[in-house]
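Researcher: Quick sanity check before group meeting.
Model: Go ahead. Protein one:
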Amino acid sequence: MDTIVRDLRYAIRTLRRAPGFTTVVVLTLALGIGANTAVFSVVNGVLLRPLPLPEPERLVYIGWRWGDGEFNTTMTAFKYAFLREHARVFEGVSTEQAWLTELGEDWDEVRGLRATPDVFRVNGIAPVLGRGFTEEDVRPGAEPVVVLSDAVWRTRFDADPAVLGRAVRLGGVPHTVVGVLPPGVRLPEAPAYADFVVPYVVEPDPRDEGHNYRVRARLAPGVTRERAEAELRALSARFREAHPELMDADEIGFTLLGYGDVLVGDLARTLWLLLGAVGFVLLIACANVAHLMLARAITREREIAVRTAIGAGRGRIVRQLVAESLVLAVAGAALGVLLAGWSIDALLALVPTGLPRREEITLDWRVLCFTLAVALATGLAFGLAAAAHAFRVDPATPLRGAQQAGTPERRRARSIIAMAEAALAVVLLTGAGLLIRSFFELRGVDAGFEPRHVLAVEFGRTPPEYVEAARVRQFEDALLERIRRLPGVLSAAASSGLPLESQFNFPMTVVGRPEATRGDVQWRAVGPEYFETLRIPLLRGRAFTEQDGESAPPVVIIDELFARKYFPGEDPIGKRIDIGTFQGREAIPGFDDPEREIVGVVGAVHVLRLDEAPIETMYIPRAQAPQAFGLGGLATLAIRVDPRAGRATTLAPAILAEIRALEPRMPAPGFSEMTEVVGASMAQERFNTALLGVFAGLALVLTAIGIYGIAAYTARQRAREIAIRVALGAQSGAVVRGEIREGMKPVALGLGAGVVTAAALTRLMSGLLFGVSPTDPRTFAAVLVTLATLASVAIWLPARRAAAADPMEILRHE
């Protein structure tokens, strides 16, 4: 131990005597290690860290699978009830839904969960006071009960143990407190810590085919995932046998899913891709450091030869060189951790909303162990490489005052470093280039409407009486009339949801044609001026008017995809459809909607994402929407603003004033421009592009610095040769061209190797691309031209300086 301490002290003293070298190496490693640490902290928090629940390995999700490999992370209420009744390998099966409501007499907003009775058993938690839920709590007519969070119990009830049995008003309805949760409890998919949990009554009906229930289960003690999967296969067969009308031929049935399948999805592939990208950045940084270490080893040949001559053993020299490398690596890692801690917030600011377990992304012990492992591996590699170089040098040569800087072996080492940097840079820049092209292709997609100069107004919680359809319509009509009179407003309309924000599906059958049926047609309940406001083109027939009221004949407008699929080669105007029926039967329990006449055809609109094709959509007048269409709340408003009035959001204060004039108790809604909504739909693509672009830019800078450093060092070593050539009459231009030609040979080989590697690796990105092939030739060509130009400039600068030097001065110095 004393020897190790002495080695470390000597290494620190030695490095302090070379501040320039030490600073460059530490900063280079800090950039590479810091980027890796920041991205790994996200991967660790989202993918690797165990769920913060007891025995998380027993927690599973159950979805529904089709024969083509696709699966749904949710299922219908009827399938959930069948699973819960017949499964024997689970300790509990539960489903939950978030609920945003008001607490107490002051109507303070709280966030909670509706959950089935098994929720506490499935998550392995138990109330610290009172009890959880029982089957009696979800029977018809049962008294409403609630389990409070620890935070609400302490802040609202002063941690009073006598809170059990007290009545708490949630959404205006009294609930009896039956339990209090332990502190810090949070379910994996919950967007925030729940303030309360109430029983959730699931009403299974085979006619309801909406996959709206996410199901979690806890494996029984001793049950393996393989046994659970086998039972789910058997249950799927039993379900098909008992209810053949509810399963198509291509459906497989129940399937076991993991946390990553359900809550992370495609983001997992993105995070692993980014971790691989920053790994390439670290490799480029290491290549730069390797060249610096090689140059330093050449300058220290005499020192090592002297130590060898006076009796130092190989083990002693190896320990010393490894100690210096470890000091550099640890210093770079320490600075990298500081950079990562600063950059995590910036990284999370780029991450799309909805990232699971966002609050768990920290520099915990796993991240620090990862950083330490990277630092130790880097330090050991450099130290052993330096030692191997030292032992390949004949000690007599440096003792005679000669150096072997220009030996073929060392030239080959520098060429390999340049090749590696060029190849790694090609891979990173190609990936970033493909994502950039894909992002711009996505931005060029016609959304089907004009988002510019449109203001979206979205209401959150409302006073309790605004769940009644008549009150909702009255308020909406009055508010829209006031808004339309505001200066700068061109049109305004109400809608059950705006494009790229929400999706609602209903079954449908064409009247008189029972074969023309579908179980999930997109729909919107919209008011007059909706198509005008969003500039959705009217292709045939008419738009909705004020006359399409509740007592008017029921009508519907379809889009061009709907018309093309169900009315090919004919005019759909005047035809009728029956919403809510599927394959000749009522598909939605309690849904009572009359047959509707088609009065218009409009253009197709993208529903949720620009990279997904539009789907068939039908529109009904909002005034004619039954309660089952979800009219139990205020609509989203779309307001088109005159471009001369400035940004659409400048009208927000005037609109808020009109809202308060009608209803002083109404909370302020959310205001956003539709261009922001369109941008939010591309948040994942923007995140991928921005982050990989940053890493590719960092790799480009490091590569340029590395190639320049190699060229500059080579030029210094060949200064005497260049001086002799110039003195004998060689033109400086010819000398520079020769140096560029020699320097570009390893770079060209690296570019070729990088193209082959990139062509293989970019295929892994195919799921992240839109409108661009993973082997897009224009992207590859642009990357090659960029890197070749950059490398040529990096080689040209030191070559030009060497050719322009005074030959007599150099020769006299020699």
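Researcher: Fine. The other one?
Model: Protein two, sequence then structure:
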Amino acid sequence: MTGRDAVLSPDLTAALVGRELENAAVAAFVQGSATAGALILDGEAGIGKSTMWGAGVGAALGRHDTVLSARAAQAEASMSFAGLGDLLDPVAEHLQGLPARQQAALDVALSRRTPGAVAPSEREIGIALLAALRLLAAEATVMLAVDDIQWLDRASAEVLGYALRRLRTEPVRVLLARRSNDVDDSGADTAPSTVTMLEAVSGLAPQLVHLGPLPDADVAELIRSRLSTSARPAVARRLAAAARGNPFWAIELAAATTAPAASAQDATREIALPASLDALLTARLARLPDGARMALLMVTTLSRPTWAAVARALREMVADPDAAIDAAVAAGALTESSGRLAPTHPLLGTAALHALSPTRRRRLHRRLAELTFEPEQRARHLALASTGDPDTEIAAALDAGVLSARARGASHAAAELADLAVGLTPPTDLSEFARRRLDAAELCFAAGDLDRACTFATDVYQAGPSPADWPRLLPLLVEVTYWVRGQAAAQAVVRTVLHAADADLRRRAIALACAADVGDGTGRGRAELAQESIDLFDTLGDTDPGVLSTALIYLAEAHLDAGHGIALDLLERAETTEKQQQLSTPHWIPVLNRARSIRAYQLKIVDDLNGARAELLQALSTARSEGDDSSLPALLGHLALTECWAGNYDDALAAAQEGLQHAAQTGGIAPATLFASRALLAVLTGDPDTARTLMTEQLRAKSDTVASKRTLVYLHVLGLAALLDGDTTLALEHLDGAWTIAAELGIEEPGRRQRMEGDLGEALVACGHLDRADELAATQIALGRATRPTVAGVGWRIRGLTLAARGELDAAVIALDHAIDAHRSSPLPLELPRSQLELGKVQRRLRAPAAARANLDAAAHRFTALGATSWIRVTQAQLARIATPRPSAQLTPTETRVAILASHGRNNREIAAELFLSVRTIEGHLAATYRKLNLHGRADLARHPSIRE
């Protein structure tokens, strides 16, 4: 089974001269172990990459591997799934064993089947491709080879990337060739497909084989093979030096000197060398007959240039199309294999196209547009044929291309075509101009290009949308403005609409629904804004059910924030109105904003982690099936946090990493949940420095000037990191800051506060704020008493810590026993060992080492099972104190005075001021006191017999 035949141009086979090391590397790769792996051939244009790539493909065919190959062409770089078609077309009959849904996804992408009501997304097609690779690899080693990946179409690169990133031990070998001079000033690749493919194989331990310039001696050998034996050695040396180690240039230079000599004197005459490769190619093209040059152009610009297709395209442009093609082949400009034509080297085709005048280039694309009936290809050719001036016909053709690309699952291509359609729409056609810009905004948002989506939506808004456009426009505009320009900018948009003199009730209801999300900047609460919007919609009737659904969702969010649990009635009504909206005036709602997704987020908040996981996985499946890439980072962030709270740290890390990578690949903005979950995992698994760096960067980059949930979650992670490091003062500073923000936002629900209560309570007790800790404990016990064992258990643990700090150790044991009983029913597995740890610490102080060891051992076992490295260290330190108690030591008078003041609740600054010492000196005295008296912290000072007035 093979992909497109890898036929080597006779002119280029000599490029293998002098490549012994590179040849050996390719041969070893092809003959390597039957596991996934990758090899990348890298070098400048004409250096011999394609020849060596073809040699590798040929070697794999000789081994009877299953070879899927594609030579990406510049003409096909904008044609969705052109590369995927080349790879899979020859093995179509071998893929009949795929599940029906996956087979359908591939068939739709490759235009073998009419799309259904819901188009497959690039992710769904990627899943199908992964299944196809595994199916083929079960029969034989698969060689997947792509030449010139910088020209691979974006849609093919995306689905290949999805599949290749998920290869593990399957015998799939990936051979890529890329042009290394397509980089920016920093050396980074500029072609999106190159970036995607290189990232995709990064997990396959790729080998990089760089093809540098050939030595002059090897170049001279190439040249001697092309020149007559009577040529002077000086000529060969001059040609070798001029080629600068590039085989293609060397061969072209040699070919330029092979014209028959008129005399012996002519044969020995020095030749004039061109100054550059461009000049050389221009001269070669000038020597081609007109018909042959036109044939080369058609092959360069046609997608899938078969002999028949090229001849048909030439029919009205040359007298004899077949003769023109034959002339191009005879002149060494084209090669033919299995009825398919290609330039002997991509540089020839590129040079021919660039040599055309703009007028002739537009005429060429206009001719190609007349020949193709595929909407996306026709639209692109017409766009290239345009002068750039508005054109109603071309804009309409681009509309058809948008529909075709979106139906096949090429979301990025659809957004790009929509962008072009906007540019070619006459500004005087106000309705079409607005419609296309709004369509482009939605498509760019779905593809993850938030900046472009924001630009389009803002343009529609500033131009004055029609009444019918407001329900689509304003929610999208507020959403993308929030992500791109910050919360304050989104609030400004809402206020402008609310205060507009011509704002009717309908527009006001829409604006209020948006304000319920981002606020209106006046201090009104989410519940008030959402309720007013709902009341207005109820007055207006059944208009705009989609926006009404948004208002219902935000009222449900406010209900949850206030600590009243999930408002299922509101969410059910929201889901019903969404369905009504799709039946009446359908427009796309991002999956992350749909009522069912909101319910998924809320389920994890109220401790239903299993329910949240199931709903989030369903939402992810929906987003992928609809091509809604913009929703994936947020959904993956919520899944990561769900798995983190559920104690599945590996699954949580995988979701967080995938979400961050996807946001980076699409250019989207990663939500705070992603960063927070990734940082929280770092803290729990023993890497607090990574967490601090990540959270500090996010806080520094935050553009909001008002209290926000993202700041709250970042401060919580920083507080927990400080707490586990033993810096309780810094921990309380961060956690108090997060608590203040939660209060300003009216958030009473613990899950919405990132479950920071246990950490805050511990920091309060450690810093001597026992009354505040008591209040926090009572609130949590009352809130969780009926149905929330996690919350109640945290309350009892804080109470136990507070009692222990006051020296009431027996009462503390009782409170911590309540905490343990509650946490045995908690779905959050980290809470039980945290309570056991605290109970063990109190029992150690009660001189009950056996009981203390039992609880500390149980905590250590559970922390170890979770992989909670930071908590393991804390627990092991406590166990060590039982095993090797330290003898008491005599305190110095200053240490005693510092300890007494600290035991009375003074902070370090206050003690330093009273004793006329520096804060750093006070910290040193306290550290020495803890070490000498075998104490854990300030809470132990008041109960130690050595600490007396």
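Researcher: One line on it for the slide.
Model: The longest strand covers residues 172-179.
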